[in-house]
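Format notes (please read before filing issues)

Several people have asked whether sequences and structure tokens are stored in separate files. They are not. Every record keeps both together, in the order shown below: the sequence lines, then the token lines. Line labels are part of the format and must not be stripped during preprocessing.
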Amino acid sequence: MRIRSMMLGAAMALALDAKADEGMWLPSQLPGLAKNLKEAGFRGDPKDLADLTRAPLNAVVRIGGGTGSFVSADGLVITNHHVAFGVIQYNSRPDRDLIANGYVAPDRAGELPANPDYRLRVTVGFDKVTDRVLAGARGKTGRAYYDAVDAASKALVAECEQGEGFKCSVANMFYGRDFYLVKQLELRDLRLVYAPPRAIGNYGDEIDNFVWPRHAGDFTILRAYVGPDGKPADYSPENKPYRPPSHLKLATGGVAQGDFVMLAGYPGITYRHRTAAEFADQVEWRLPTSVDVLKALQDVIEAKGKDDKEAGIRYASQLQSLKNGIKRFSGELEGLRRSDAVAVRRDDEAAMLAWLATQPDGKTLTPDIDRAMALIAEGKGVRERDLLVGLLSSQTQLMKGALAVDRLSVERPKADAQRETGYQKRDEELIRSQLKQIQRRYDPAVEKALVTSMMLRYQKLPDAARLPEVDAVFGRTPADLAKALDRMYAGTSFGSEAERTRLFDAPPAAVAASKDPLLVAARTLRPALLRIEDERKSREGDLLRLRPAYMQALIAYREKQGKAVYPDANSTLRVSYGKVTPLVARDAVTYAPVTTVAGIVEKNTGKEPFDAPKPLLDAIHKGDFAGYADPVTGAMPVDFLSNLDTTGGNSGSPVLNAKGELVGLNFDSNWEAVSASWMYDPRYKRAIHVDMRYIRWLIDKVYPSPALLRELGVPND
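Then the structure lines:
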């Protein structure tokens, strides 16, 4: 598929002011920012950044739930420790705790296979397909509109995936205004090469999470493999390292305050173009509620893990994800309140609508905008119900697997194009992999306690918000719930990998006839889940049809203000640029933009989470920083700050200098800017990166791997 550098018409009016550091830009927009990039300090040709088949962007990959980048010709990939944490946890057990001790592969034969569902994707195609996606939807409403867009998207994906080893998707830009077909090479054999101990990779844990100054060496190195024929393949000892089209060069120098930096990655989701009502809902209900619900789940896992080390290891990755989510949501709430985001967005929207009323197309756009706002308001009545029921699939292991097997048995008899997204033939291999790995991430006592936490809250909902099928499975009282879970988990055979595999491979009739209590529960819940899904699709169909009117007005209004517009992030490849920048956090509190190993020693207490390993402390005390220290201060850098525009999904994103060399890895945002997924505030928005000098020094002096350092192509003296 040919990659085109295309502009998005009026939506991409980049001749307008784009000097602000805000912006998660599509690569195709960057030539229009050439003047601004040059003024900021970029030394390359911005046109090269619009071509995903050329360096440096073809070295940037989607990996796990974050971003990574190729750093050698033999498929080495660097990403964050927390992005690869599931891989580390998957390979850990009580007698080989890689979480605590880290891992350095002695050679390529010693590289450890990642969990079966861990994936790496390289974007190789990005084409505008708006007309094809919307051709069958025009004139329709609600669920019919949704289904038409869905059918067209599936047809495009099926056509795109005819080549072996590719995964494709249709990305929605500007909330239904434009659609792009994204083609990605998917690699399935990833192996662990180098991971620092937790006390380096996650130094400071939750105390330091989203906080500056930081002193974490948040990195892990893996290697991508392909089959002997060079094509993507499942893990096999016969596989060979993948040869990427290019890889990033590691800088031998570092960064200092004021230096140009640029970041490329796959930011997850931002909501900056949402309505004022959605801003209010986020601040007034969604964030506080999510924090309460997730905190209860965190408490469950921590309590169980104290008494059972093996259970603690099995749930370490899930616990880390929960803690990160809680901290992020809490910071987002505080930040949105600090920036008075609801009032700012409400005033901005009111001004936009008043301006629209004076414009020629105001009478055409306003009715659609009004209807979209009414639909958004209608969703409030079932939001907590949907949140809790949805967690049954995202925060469980065995139950999630049973729900997947049950739904797959319903979808398989359909023509593939008619199957639900996530349950088509293209998805079956991933479902099988997820079912296989449950064994290493599941404990019955922990799962029962997690479901209990969710369902006790559900049982307090008003009768009008409850679902009879959920009541039938879990009961209406705490006592009923306890009995139901005891019966379900004591009687199920789904905890056996062989049984899960058998049911996955079984014909639909055999799954439907199963008397396994967990499968019976999934089957009972199915009608309720399908109704929720239908309600969601009907609402989303109308919003897909109506939101473009809001976006058309907003884009035109921003142009009137002299501002360029980028689409909200949606897990597609984006680029942001800025400078290494200090932070004025509040009155009389200013932070320098670079931390050093001195801060590791200052924070160290010898107790988790500030329990720096002895080899690290010994190396710091020895002071052998030659080739890595800051040339001006002589200090050994650890992390640095920039004003790059980032959000979730940017974890592991490579940070490049003005010459396109790798100088750092993005891994976090500061507490004052966690709310940036909704509102960019230039006073506070900072991104936190681990300095490549610190990573190289760790590999050289602390947990040595000379062969790895040589492969990375940098001197070790």
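For reference, the curators noted about this record: The longest strand covers residues 178-187. The CA atoms of residues 564 and 687 lie 22 Å apart.
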